[in-house]
């Protein structure tokens, strides 16, 4: 999956569907010959990684044949240390690979965040890498491009190798691509630089360089250009990591120097032999088990966040307001009917009985006033009729 540089801008392929099945969601990274996208298998509803080659390769039949052959060979491999290949194809002008999506980041991103690793962490990274390579070497396959960008670390601590077969397919295509060398100069074996040949011992050399970088935080050769860096290994040995940084056990110095002997005949014969030696070193030093952390600020995490935040929901069904006129209300239905049976927190029945009590009180006071008036009138009449006798 060759995560080279995080890509933050929108890409032309984002939003398209490759081969009528794989939706391109977000670009994760781009390199010299391809780009990696986070995508979705619409048929299985499964997140996937889509490695899309540049359109210039679509017209090269030799490349397409090699591309298809290498993809089939890698798809047959099965090991926890290998990124699974699900499918391959070409859609218009874009050959592509469909791979297992590793939710996490690259070893390069982890090195940038944390720097050199202690021996037990180095062993935890190299163990799965060599395990995956051993399965490939046993099947007659050579990676040719081992580097931190092609080592992926999941959020669960899984370490996996990506990009098997692509370098060979590109290198044997009619289209020449200097980026194949320029992008991997620090990790190429001497024979890859001088003759272009590669076998399992070439991968061993690259893993040795990778181990050196994990222990020291830097690669052994430097130069003004990538080609200068590549050619320095032809005439110079890789120094012991312990000569650059303190605290490196002697066994790891010997391990790295054995893997990076300039003459392929002096190296480990393949990844299995190198893995066995690493296991013996871990046992001898009593190194503890270690869960390799995924990088916190990875391009993969950024792409996942972008995909989640930009996911579009289905548009809501339009709701039209119904116009109701007075004639639409049934005659038996009051225009307003209290729903709760209350008004201002007081039961409507209370208002009814209060009104009845008010009516009774009014009647009582009217009768009382009439009676009092009658009594006053009667008293006045009696008093007036006997006023002379009184006087």
Automatic annotation (TrEMBL):
It is a single-pass membrane protein. Keywords: ATP-binding, Cell membrane, Kinase, Membrane, Nucleotide-binding, Phosphoprotein, Serine/threonine-protein kinase, Transferase, Transmembrane, Transmembrane helix. The chain crosses the membrane at residues 362-383. GO terms for cellular component: plasma membrane. Its EC number is 2.7.11.1. It is an enzyme of class 2 (transferase). The keyword Plastid does not apply. GO terms for biological process: negative regulation of fatty acid biosynthetic process. GO terms for molecular function: ATP binding; protein serine/threonine kinase activity. It holds the Pfam family Pkinase. It is found in: Cell membrane. InterPro entries: Kinase-like_dom_sf (IPR011009), Prot_kinase_dom (IPR000719), Ser/Thr_kinase_AS (IPR008271). It comes from the Bacteria. CDD domains: STKc_PknB_like. Residues 311-340 are annotated as: Disordered. Residues 320-329 have a biased composition (Basic and acidic residues). This is non-specific serine/threonine protein kinase.
């Amino acid at each position: 999956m060759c995560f080279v540089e995080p890509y933050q801008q929108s890409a032309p392929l984002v939003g398209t569907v490759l081969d009528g099945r794989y939706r391109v969601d977000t670009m994760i990274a781009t390199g010299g010959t391809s780009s990696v996208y986070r995508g979705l298998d619409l048929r299985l509803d499964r997140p996937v990684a889509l490695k899309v080659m540049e359109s210039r390769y679509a017209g090269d039949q030799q490349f397409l044949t090699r591309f298809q052959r290498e993809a089939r060979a890698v798809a047959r491999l099965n090991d926890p240390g290998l990124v699974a290949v699900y499918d391959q194809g070409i859609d218009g002008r874009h050959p592509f690979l469909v791979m297992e999506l590793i939710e996490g980041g690259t070893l390069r991103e982890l090195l940038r965040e944390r720097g050199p690793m202690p021996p037990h962490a180095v062993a935890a990274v190299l163990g799965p890498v060599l395990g995956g390579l051993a399965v490939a070497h046993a099947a007659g396959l050579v990676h040719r491009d081992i580097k931190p960008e092609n080592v992926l670390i999941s959020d669960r601590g899984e370490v996996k190798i990506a990009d098997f077969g692509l370098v060979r397919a590109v290198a044997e295509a009619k289209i020449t691509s200097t980026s194949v060398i320029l992008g991997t100069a620090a990790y190429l074996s001497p024979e890859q630089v001088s003759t272009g040949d590669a076998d399992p011992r070439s991968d061993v050399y690259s893993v040795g360089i990778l181990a050196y970088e994990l222990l020291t935080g830097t690669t052994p050769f430097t130069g003004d250009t990538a080609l200068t860096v590549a050619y320095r290994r032809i005439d110079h040995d890789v120094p012991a990591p312990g000569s650059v940084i303190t605290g490196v056990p002697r066994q790891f110095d010997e391990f790295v120097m054995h893997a990076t002997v300039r003459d392929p005949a002096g190296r480990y014969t393949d990844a299995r032999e190198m893995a066995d030696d690493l296991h013996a070193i871990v046992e001898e030093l009593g190194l503890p088990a270690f869960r390799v952390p995924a990088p916190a600020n990875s391009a993969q995490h950024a792409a996942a966040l972008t995909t989640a935040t930009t996911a579009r929901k289905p548009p809501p069904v339009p709701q039209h307001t119904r116009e109701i006129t007075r004639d639409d209300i049934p005659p038996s239905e009051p225009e307003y009917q209290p729903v709760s049976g209350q008004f201002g927190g007081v039961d409507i029945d209370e208002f009814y009985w209060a009104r009845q009590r008010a009516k009774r009180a009014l009647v009582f006071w009217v009768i009382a006033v009439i009676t009092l008036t009658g009594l006053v009138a009667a008293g006045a009449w009696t008093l007036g009729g006997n006023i002379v006798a009184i006087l």
